[in-house]
Amino acid sequence: MILLLFLLPYLTLGQDISFGKEKEVCETNRGVPCKLPFFYKGHMHYECSTFGPGSGGTLFGRCPVVLVNQTSREPSLKREDWARCGRYCPLQQYTPNTVINRMLRTVADENPEMVRLLKVGESHLGQEILGVTISAGVHNRSILRPMVRYVGNMHGNEPVGRELLVNLVQVLVQGYDEDPRIRQLIDNTNITIIPTINPDGFDRSTEGACSGGDYATGRYNEGNKDLNRDFPTWQEVGRSLQEISEGRQPETQDMMKLILSEPWVLSANFHGGAVVASYPYDDYRKIGQKGLHKTADHTFFKHLASTYANNHLSMLDQTKCTRWYFTDGITNGAEWYPLVGGMQDFNYLFSNDMEITLEVSCCKYPKKYYLNNLWDENRESLFAYLEQVHRGIKGLVVLESGEVVSGSKVEVENLETGERVREVSTSILGEYWKLLLPGNYRVRATVDECSQSGSIKVSPWQQITLTEEEKLKRLDLVLTEENCQSGPR
Asked: Is the pTM of this model over 0.90?
Protein backbone atom coordinates (compact mmCIF):
# COMPACT_ATOMS: atom_id res chain seq x y z
CA MET A 1 0.00 0.00 0.00
CA ILE A 2 2.84 2.42 0.82
CA LEU A 3 4.41 1.77 -2.58
CA LEU A 4 1.10 2.38 -4.34
CA LEU A 5 0.64 5.69 -2.53
CA PHE A 6 4.12 6.76 -3.59
CA LEU A 7 3.44 5.85 -7.20
CA LEU A 8 0.00 7.41 -7.37
CA PRO A 9 1.19 10.83 -8.67
CA TYR A 10 3.03 9.11 -11.54
CA LEU A 11 0.14 6.85 -12.39
CA THR A 12 -2.35 9.68 -12.56
CA LEU A 13 -0.05 11.68 -14.79
CA GLY A 14 0.69 8.68 -16.98
CA GLN A 15 4.47 8.79 -16.66
CA ASP A 16 7.17 6.18 -16.78
CA ILE A 17 7.85 5.29 -13.17
CA SER A 18 10.45 2.61 -13.68
CA PHE A 19 13.53 4.55 -12.47
CA GLY A 20 15.49 1.60 -13.72
CA LYS A 21 13.79 -1.03 -11.57
CA GLU A 22 10.15 -1.79 -12.27
CA LYS A 23 10.42 -2.42 -15.98
CA GLU A 24 7.13 -4.32 -16.07
CA VAL A 25 5.34 -0.96 -15.88
CA CYS A 26 6.26 -0.39 -19.52
CA GLU A 27 3.75 -2.48 -21.47
CA THR A 28 2.69 -2.72 -25.07
CA ASN A 29 -0.68 -1.37 -26.18
CA ARG A 30 -1.88 -4.97 -25.87
CA GLY A 31 -0.98 -5.06 -22.17
CA VAL A 32 2.05 -7.36 -22.59
CA PRO A 33 5.21 -6.30 -20.69
CA CYS A 34 7.98 -4.87 -22.85
CA LYS A 35 11.29 -6.67 -22.46
CA LEU A 36 13.41 -3.69 -21.44
CA PRO A 37 16.30 -3.36 -21.76
CA PHE A 38 17.07 -5.15 -25.01
CA PHE A 39 20.18 -5.28 -27.17
CA TYR A 40 19.41 -4.30 -30.76
CA LYS A 41 21.37 -2.73 -33.63
CA GLY A 42 24.60 -2.49 -31.69
CA HIS A 43 23.54 -1.07 -28.35
CA MET A 44 21.29 -1.61 -25.36
CA HIS A 45 17.88 0.06 -25.51
CA TYR A 46 16.25 1.26 -22.30
CA GLU A 47 13.30 2.62 -24.24
CA CYS A 48 11.26 1.52 -27.25
CA SER A 49 12.64 1.78 -30.77
CA THR A 50 11.12 3.17 -33.95
CA PHE A 51 13.38 0.87 -35.98
CA GLY A 52 12.31 -2.51 -34.63
CA PRO A 53 10.87 -5.33 -36.78
CA GLY A 54 7.49 -4.31 -38.10
CA SER A 55 8.06 -0.59 -37.57
CA GLY A 56 7.89 0.09 -41.30
CA GLY A 57 9.03 3.69 -40.95
CA THR A 58 6.34 4.56 -38.41
CA LEU A 59 6.97 7.15 -35.70
CA PHE A 60 5.60 4.89 -33.00
CA GLY A 61 8.03 3.14 -30.68
CA ARG A 62 7.94 -0.65 -30.56
CA CYS A 63 9.44 -3.10 -28.11
CA PRO A 64 10.11 -6.83 -28.08
CA VAL A 65 7.91 -9.04 -25.95
CA VAL A 66 10.19 -12.05 -26.45
CA LEU A 67 13.93 -12.33 -25.79
CA VAL A 68 15.92 -15.13 -27.42
CA ASN A 69 18.80 -14.71 -24.96
CA GLN A 70 18.11 -13.55 -21.41
CA THR A 71 21.78 -12.93 -20.67
CA SER A 72 22.63 -10.79 -23.68
CA ARG A 73 19.08 -9.37 -23.83
CA GLU A 74 18.85 -10.08 -27.55
CA PRO A 75 15.25 -9.90 -28.77
CA SER A 76 13.41 -12.08 -31.20
CA LEU A 77 13.47 -10.53 -34.66
CA LYS A 78 10.09 -11.88 -35.62
CA ARG A 79 7.61 -9.14 -36.43
CA GLU A 80 4.91 -10.77 -34.31
CA ASP A 81 7.23 -10.66 -31.26
CA TRP A 82 7.29 -6.86 -31.30
CA ALA A 83 4.43 -4.49 -30.49
CA ARG A 84 3.71 -0.80 -30.14
CA CYS A 85 4.63 0.61 -26.75
CA GLY A 86 1.98 1.84 -24.34
CA ARG A 87 1.70 5.25 -22.75
CA TYR A 88 3.68 4.38 -19.61
CA CYS A 89 6.87 3.55 -21.50
CA PRO A 90 9.70 6.10 -21.76
CA LEU A 91 9.35 8.81 -24.40
CA GLN A 92 5.67 8.18 -25.03
CA GLN A 93 4.57 11.52 -23.61
CA TYR A 94 5.91 14.79 -22.20
CA THR A 95 6.96 14.85 -18.56
CA PRO A 96 5.54 17.51 -16.19
CA ASN A 97 7.97 19.64 -14.19
CA THR A 98 7.05 18.05 -10.86
CA VAL A 99 7.59 14.55 -12.25
CA ILE A 100 10.99 15.49 -13.68
CA ASN A 101 12.09 16.76 -10.29
CA ARG A 102 10.80 13.66 -8.49
CA MET A 103 12.59 11.45 -10.99
CA LEU A 104 15.86 13.34 -10.55
CA ARG A 105 15.62 13.06 -6.78
CA THR A 106 14.81 9.36 -6.97
CA VAL A 107 17.69 8.60 -9.32
CA ALA A 108 20.09 10.48 -7.03
CA ASP A 109 18.76 8.77 -3.89
CA GLU A 110 18.98 5.30 -5.43
CA ASN A 111 22.47 5.79 -6.93
CA PRO A 112 24.36 7.89 -4.35
CA GLU A 113 27.85 6.88 -5.54
CA MET A 114 27.10 7.84 -9.15
CA VAL A 115 24.43 10.54 -9.14
CA ARG A 116 24.32 13.83 -7.21
CA LEU A 117 21.28 16.08 -7.19
CA LEU A 118 22.05 19.60 -8.39
CA LYS A 119 19.90 22.49 -7.18
CA VAL A 120 20.35 25.16 -9.83
CA GLY A 121 17.82 27.59 -8.37
CA GLU A 122 14.19 28.60 -8.76
CA SER A 123 12.10 29.96 -11.59
CA HIS A 124 10.30 33.29 -11.54
CA LEU A 125 7.26 31.53 -10.03
CA GLY A 126 9.34 29.62 -7.51
CA GLN A 127 9.49 26.24 -9.25
CA GLU A 128 12.66 24.33 -8.45
CA ILE A 129 15.19 24.04 -11.26
CA LEU A 130 17.06 20.81 -10.70
CA GLY A 131 19.63 18.73 -12.48
CA VAL A 132 21.89 15.80 -11.74
CA THR A 133 25.60 15.23 -12.01
CA ILE A 134 26.55 11.71 -13.09
CA SER A 135 30.05 10.39 -12.56
CA ALA A 136 31.83 7.57 -10.75
CA GLY A 137 32.53 8.77 -7.21
CA VAL A 138 30.40 11.79 -7.99
CA HIS A 139 30.79 13.54 -4.63
CA ASN A 140 34.56 13.84 -5.03
CA ARG A 141 35.56 14.72 -8.60
CA SER A 142 38.86 13.13 -9.55
CA ILE A 143 41.64 15.51 -10.48
CA LEU A 144 41.56 16.43 -14.18
CA ARG A 145 38.22 14.71 -14.76
CA PRO A 146 36.50 17.12 -17.21
CA MET A 147 33.08 18.63 -16.61
CA VAL A 148 30.40 18.58 -19.34
CA ARG A 149 26.90 20.05 -19.18
CA TYR A 150 23.65 19.57 -21.11
CA VAL A 151 20.83 22.10 -20.59
CA GLY A 152 17.33 21.85 -22.03
CA ASN A 153 14.11 23.83 -22.39
CA MET A 154 15.57 27.34 -22.21
CA HIS A 155 12.56 28.35 -24.28
CA GLY A 156 9.52 26.88 -22.58
CA ASN A 157 7.75 25.96 -25.82
CA GLU A 158 10.75 23.98 -27.10
CA PRO A 159 10.59 20.87 -24.89
CA VAL A 160 12.02 18.09 -27.06
CA GLY A 161 15.46 18.65 -25.55
CA ARG A 162 14.13 18.24 -22.03
CA GLU A 163 12.65 14.84 -22.92
CA LEU A 164 15.90 13.74 -24.56
CA LEU A 165 17.76 14.72 -21.39
CA VAL A 166 15.26 13.08 -19.04
CA ASN A 167 15.74 9.83 -20.93
CA LEU A 168 19.50 10.27 -21.15
CA VAL A 169 19.71 10.41 -17.35
CA GLN A 170 18.04 7.03 -17.06
CA VAL A 171 20.04 5.51 -19.93
CA LEU A 172 23.36 6.58 -18.37
CA VAL A 173 22.46 5.27 -14.91
CA GLN A 174 20.89 2.02 -16.06
CA GLY A 175 23.58 1.39 -18.65
CA TYR A 176 26.59 1.75 -16.35
CA ASP A 177 26.79 -1.96 -15.53
CA GLU A 178 25.76 -3.17 -18.99
CA ASP A 179 27.29 -0.89 -21.63
CA PRO A 180 31.10 -0.47 -21.81
CA ARG A 181 30.74 2.84 -23.65
CA ILE A 182 28.56 4.28 -20.91
CA ARG A 183 30.87 2.94 -18.21
CA GLN A 184 33.85 4.56 -19.94
CA LEU A 185 32.06 7.90 -20.05
CA ILE A 186 30.91 7.86 -16.44
CA ASP A 187 34.27 6.64 -15.10
CA ASN A 188 36.14 9.44 -16.84
CA THR A 189 33.69 12.33 -17.19
CA ASN A 190 31.68 14.56 -14.89
CA ILE A 191 28.32 14.86 -16.71
CA THR A 192 25.70 17.37 -15.58
CA ILE A 193 22.20 17.26 -17.06
CA ILE A 194 19.59 19.96 -16.45
CA PRO A 195 16.38 19.07 -18.31
CA THR A 196 14.67 22.47 -17.98
CA ILE A 197 15.62 25.99 -16.95
CA ASN A 198 12.27 27.51 -17.96
CA PRO A 199 9.60 25.41 -16.23
CA ASP A 200 7.18 28.35 -16.06
CA GLY A 201 7.26 28.82 -19.81
CA PHE A 202 6.75 25.10 -20.37
CA ASP A 203 3.59 25.18 -18.27
CA ARG A 204 2.25 27.94 -20.52
CA SER A 205 3.08 26.23 -23.82
CA THR A 206 0.89 24.01 -25.99
CA GLU A 207 1.70 20.60 -27.39
CA GLY A 208 1.47 20.58 -31.18
CA ALA A 209 2.28 24.29 -31.59
CA CYS A 210 5.15 24.41 -34.06
CA SER A 211 5.86 28.12 -33.76
CA GLY A 212 5.63 30.85 -31.15
CA GLY A 213 8.01 33.53 -29.97
CA ASP A 214 6.46 35.38 -27.05
CA TYR A 215 5.12 35.12 -23.51
CA ALA A 216 1.74 33.70 -24.44
CA THR A 217 3.21 30.79 -26.39
CA GLY A 218 5.58 29.88 -23.56
CA ARG A 219 8.88 30.91 -25.12
CA TYR A 220 9.53 33.57 -22.48
CA ASN A 221 9.86 33.03 -18.76
CA GLU A 222 7.27 34.36 -16.31
CA GLY A 223 9.14 37.66 -16.22
CA ASN A 224 8.23 38.09 -19.92
CA LYS A 225 11.84 37.71 -21.00
CA ASP A 226 13.51 35.55 -23.64
CA LEU A 227 16.19 33.88 -21.51
CA ASN A 228 18.43 33.48 -24.55
CA ARG A 229 18.58 37.27 -24.86
CA ASP A 230 19.22 37.90 -21.15
CA PHE A 231 22.89 36.99 -20.65
CA PRO A 232 25.77 39.48 -20.44
CA THR A 233 27.63 40.19 -23.68
CA TRP A 234 31.14 41.03 -24.84
CA GLN A 235 30.52 44.62 -23.75
CA GLU A 236 30.46 43.53 -20.10
CA VAL A 237 33.55 41.31 -20.02
CA GLY A 238 35.73 42.20 -17.02
CA ARG A 239 32.90 43.24 -14.72
CA SER A 240 32.10 41.44 -11.48
CA LEU A 241 29.37 38.83 -11.16
CA GLN A 242 27.38 41.23 -9.02
CA GLU A 243 27.59 43.92 -11.68
CA ILE A 244 26.61 41.69 -14.60
CA SER A 245 23.79 40.04 -12.63
CA GLU A 246 21.92 43.25 -11.96
CA GLY A 247 18.51 43.32 -13.64
CA ARG A 248 18.72 39.73 -14.95
CA GLN A 249 15.95 37.18 -14.64
CA PRO A 250 16.25 34.67 -11.76
CA GLU A 251 16.77 31.76 -14.15
CA THR A 252 19.55 33.67 -15.91
CA GLN A 253 21.24 34.59 -12.65
CA ASP A 254 21.13 30.97 -11.47
CA MET A 255 22.73 29.74 -14.69
CA MET A 256 25.38 32.47 -14.57
CA LYS A 257 26.36 31.43 -11.05
CA LEU A 258 26.54 27.79 -12.09
CA ILE A 259 28.60 28.52 -15.20
CA LEU A 260 31.09 30.67 -13.29
CA SER A 261 31.33 28.44 -10.21
CA GLU A 262 32.87 25.34 -11.82
CA PRO A 263 35.63 24.64 -14.39
CA TRP A 264 33.30 23.55 -17.19
CA VAL A 265 35.03 22.37 -20.34
CA LEU A 266 32.19 21.58 -22.75
CA SER A 267 28.43 22.11 -22.89
CA ALA A 268 25.40 22.31 -25.15
CA ASN A 269 21.94 23.78 -24.83
CA PHE A 270 18.90 22.36 -26.58
CA HIS A 271 16.31 24.25 -28.60
CA GLY A 272 13.62 23.53 -31.19
CA GLY A 273 12.16 25.03 -34.34
CA ALA A 274 14.97 23.90 -36.65
CA VAL A 275 17.33 20.96 -37.05
CA VAL A 276 20.89 22.27 -36.92
CA ALA A 277 23.97 22.58 -34.70
CA SER A 278 24.86 26.24 -34.21
CA TYR A 279 28.18 27.52 -32.85
CA PRO A 280 29.53 30.93 -31.63
CA TYR A 281 29.59 33.74 -32.08
CA ASP A 282 25.92 34.64 -32.08
CA ASP A 283 26.60 38.36 -31.73
CA TYR A 284 28.53 40.90 -33.80
CA ARG A 285 30.86 43.63 -32.52
CA LYS A 286 30.23 46.27 -35.17
CA ILE A 287 27.08 47.86 -36.53
CA GLY A 288 26.37 46.57 -40.02
CA GLN A 289 28.64 43.54 -39.66
CA LYS A 290 27.43 40.51 -41.60
CA GLY A 291 28.37 36.93 -42.36
CA LEU A 292 30.52 34.49 -40.41
CA HIS A 293 31.73 35.70 -37.02
CA LYS A 294 34.59 33.45 -35.93
CA THR A 295 35.90 32.84 -32.46
CA ALA A 296 39.57 32.11 -31.79
CA ASP A 297 38.48 28.46 -31.55
CA HIS A 298 36.52 28.45 -34.79
CA THR A 299 37.97 25.18 -36.07
CA PHE A 300 37.12 23.24 -32.94
CA PHE A 301 33.65 24.78 -32.68
CA LYS A 302 32.95 23.64 -36.24
CA HIS A 303 34.19 20.20 -35.26
CA LEU A 304 31.80 20.11 -32.29
CA ALA A 305 28.84 21.13 -34.42
CA SER A 306 29.79 18.65 -37.13
CA THR A 307 30.19 15.86 -34.59
CA TYR A 308 26.59 16.30 -33.52
CA ALA A 309 25.26 16.77 -37.05
CA ASN A 310 27.18 13.88 -38.60
CA ASN A 311 26.02 11.43 -35.94
CA HIS A 312 22.39 12.61 -36.13
CA LEU A 313 20.08 10.56 -38.31
CA SER A 314 18.53 13.50 -40.17
CA MET A 315 20.44 16.72 -39.43
CA LEU A 316 22.33 16.47 -42.72
CA ASP A 317 19.12 15.95 -44.71
CA GLN A 318 17.89 19.43 -45.64
CA THR A 319 14.60 18.06 -47.00
CA LYS A 320 13.42 17.21 -43.47
CA CYS A 321 13.07 20.80 -42.28
CA THR A 322 12.85 23.18 -45.20
CA ARG A 323 12.38 26.55 -43.51
CA TRP A 324 16.17 27.07 -43.64
CA TYR A 325 19.03 25.46 -45.52
CA PHE A 326 22.16 24.61 -43.56
CA THR A 327 25.19 23.27 -45.38
CA ASP A 328 26.33 20.07 -43.62
CA GLY A 329 23.71 20.60 -40.92
CA ILE A 330 25.70 23.26 -39.06
CA THR A 331 25.79 27.05 -38.91
CA ASN A 332 27.60 29.93 -37.30
CA GLY A 333 25.06 31.61 -35.03
CA ALA A 334 25.59 35.17 -36.23
CA GLU A 335 25.62 34.12 -39.87
CA TRP A 336 22.22 32.42 -39.36
CA TYR A 337 20.77 35.39 -37.52
CA PRO A 338 22.52 37.60 -34.94
CA LEU A 339 21.26 37.70 -31.38
CA VAL A 340 22.46 39.65 -28.36
CA GLY A 341 22.55 38.13 -24.87
CA GLY A 342 22.75 34.44 -25.76
CA MET A 343 23.96 31.75 -23.37
CA GLN A 344 26.50 30.11 -25.69
CA ASP A 345 28.42 33.36 -26.21
CA PHE A 346 28.30 34.05 -22.46
CA ASN A 347 29.92 30.69 -21.74
CA TYR A 348 32.75 31.35 -24.16
CA LEU A 349 33.38 34.96 -23.18
CA PHE A 350 33.15 34.65 -19.39
CA SER A 351 34.49 31.13 -18.71
CA ASN A 352 36.68 28.40 -20.18
CA ASP A 353 33.60 26.54 -21.42
CA MET A 354 32.87 25.84 -25.07
CA GLU A 355 29.13 25.61 -25.74
CA ILE A 356 27.04 25.16 -28.87
CA THR A 357 23.29 25.34 -29.46
CA LEU A 358 21.43 22.28 -30.70
CA GLU A 359 18.16 22.73 -32.55
CA VAL A 360 16.64 19.24 -32.47
CA SER A 361 13.09 19.46 -33.86
CA CYS A 362 11.62 21.24 -36.86
CA CYS A 363 8.42 21.83 -34.88
CA LYS A 364 9.02 23.63 -31.61
CA TYR A 365 6.57 21.50 -29.58
CA PRO A 366 5.74 18.42 -31.67
CA LYS A 367 3.05 15.98 -30.66
CA LYS A 368 4.18 13.38 -28.15
CA TYR A 369 4.19 10.54 -30.66
CA TYR A 370 7.28 12.07 -32.30
CA LEU A 371 9.40 11.78 -29.15
CA ASN A 372 10.53 8.19 -29.52
CA ASN A 373 11.73 8.81 -33.06
CA LEU A 374 13.46 12.04 -32.04
CA TRP A 375 15.38 10.10 -29.39
CA ASP A 376 16.43 7.54 -32.01
CA GLU A 377 17.63 10.36 -34.26
CA ASN A 378 19.65 12.07 -31.50
CA ARG A 379 20.93 9.16 -29.41
CA GLU A 380 24.30 8.66 -31.08
CA SER A 381 24.91 12.40 -31.29
CA LEU A 382 24.30 12.80 -27.55
CA PHE A 383 27.03 10.28 -26.77
CA ALA A 384 29.47 11.35 -29.47
CA TYR A 385 29.29 14.97 -28.32
CA LEU A 386 30.04 14.08 -24.70
CA GLU A 387 33.08 12.12 -25.83
CA GLN A 388 34.62 15.21 -27.48
CA VAL A 389 35.63 16.50 -24.06
CA HIS A 390 38.39 13.88 -24.16
CA ARG A 391 40.36 15.68 -26.86
CA GLY A 392 43.24 18.12 -26.75
CA ILE A 393 45.49 18.66 -23.76
CA LYS A 394 45.00 18.76 -20.02
CA GLY A 395 47.29 19.07 -17.05
CA LEU A 396 48.30 20.86 -13.89
CA VAL A 397 50.09 24.17 -13.53
CA VAL A 398 52.47 24.07 -10.56
CA LEU A 399 55.34 25.94 -8.96
CA GLU A 400 58.77 24.37 -8.72
CA SER A 401 57.81 23.35 -5.19
CA GLY A 402 54.92 21.31 -6.58
CA GLU A 403 52.25 23.68 -5.28
CA VAL A 404 49.33 24.00 -7.70
CA VAL A 405 48.53 27.42 -9.10
CA SER A 406 44.96 28.60 -9.63
CA GLY A 407 44.12 31.42 -12.01
CA SER A 408 47.13 30.85 -14.24
CA LYS A 409 46.64 31.61 -17.94
CA VAL A 410 47.48 28.79 -20.34
CA GLU A 411 48.38 29.90 -23.86
CA VAL A 412 48.28 27.61 -26.90
CA GLU A 413 49.68 28.35 -30.35
CA ASN A 414 49.13 26.26 -33.46
CA LEU A 415 52.59 25.75 -34.94
CA GLU A 416 51.21 24.98 -38.40
CA THR A 417 49.16 28.18 -38.74
CA GLY A 418 50.79 30.46 -36.19
CA GLU A 419 47.37 31.21 -34.74
CA ARG A 420 46.68 31.46 -31.03
CA VAL A 421 43.51 29.89 -29.69
CA ARG A 422 41.74 31.40 -26.70
CA GLU A 423 43.71 31.03 -23.48
CA VAL A 424 42.16 29.20 -20.55
CA SER A 425 42.53 29.73 -16.80
CA THR A 426 43.44 27.07 -14.27
CA SER A 427 40.89 25.88 -11.70
CA ILE A 428 41.29 26.21 -7.94
CA LEU A 429 43.04 22.83 -8.13
CA GLY A 430 45.51 24.08 -10.73
CA GLU A 431 43.84 22.11 -13.56
CA TYR A 432 43.47 23.18 -17.15
CA TRP A 433 41.85 21.65 -20.22
CA LYS A 434 42.13 22.88 -23.79
CA LEU A 435 40.05 21.23 -26.50
CA LEU A 436 42.10 20.85 -29.68
CA LEU A 437 42.10 18.88 -32.92
CA PRO A 438 45.11 16.84 -34.09
CA GLY A 439 48.08 19.04 -34.92
CA ASN A 440 51.34 20.50 -33.60
CA TYR A 441 51.10 23.04 -30.81
CA ARG A 442 53.22 24.84 -28.28
CA VAL A 443 51.95 25.60 -24.80
CA ARG A 444 52.94 27.70 -21.82
CA ALA A 445 51.42 29.04 -18.60
CA THR A 446 51.82 32.49 -17.08
CA VAL A 447 50.86 34.37 -13.94
CA ASP A 448 51.33 38.11 -14.38
CA GLU A 449 52.14 39.75 -11.03
CA CYS A 450 53.99 42.72 -12.48
CA SER A 451 51.62 45.26 -10.96
CA GLN A 452 51.90 43.68 -7.51
CA SER A 453 55.50 42.48 -7.16
CA GLY A 454 57.31 43.35 -10.36
CA SER A 455 57.59 39.69 -11.32
CA ILE A 456 55.96 37.27 -13.68
CA LYS A 457 55.72 33.52 -13.29
CA VAL A 458 56.03 31.65 -16.56
CA SER A 459 56.66 28.14 -17.80
CA PRO A 460 58.86 27.48 -20.82
CA TRP A 461 57.09 26.85 -24.12
CA GLN A 462 56.54 23.12 -24.62
CA GLN A 463 55.72 21.48 -27.93
CA ILE A 464 53.10 18.77 -28.19
CA THR A 465 51.65 16.76 -31.08
CA LEU A 466 48.13 15.37 -31.15
CA THR A 467 46.94 12.70 -33.58
CA GLU A 468 43.70 10.80 -34.15
CA GLU A 469 45.39 7.87 -32.40
CA GLU A 470 46.39 10.11 -29.47
CA LYS A 471 43.59 12.66 -29.30
CA LEU A 472 44.25 13.59 -25.68
CA LYS A 473 47.54 14.13 -23.88
CA ARG A 474 48.48 15.29 -20.42
CA LEU A 475 50.98 18.11 -20.16
CA ASP A 476 51.87 19.58 -16.77
CA LEU A 477 53.45 23.03 -16.75
CA VAL A 478 55.99 24.25 -14.15
CA LEU A 479 56.22 27.98 -13.42
CA THR A 480 59.44 29.81 -12.64
CA GLU A 481 59.70 33.44 -11.56
CA GLU A 482 61.12 36.15 -13.82
CA ASN A 483 61.49 39.90 -13.48
CA CYS A 484 59.14 42.02 -15.55
CA GLN A 485 61.11 43.76 -18.29
CA SER A 486 60.09 47.27 -17.26
CA GLY A 487 59.49 46.73 -13.52
CA PRO A 488 56.08 46.89 -11.88
CA ARG A 489 53.24 47.99 -14.13
From this structure: yes
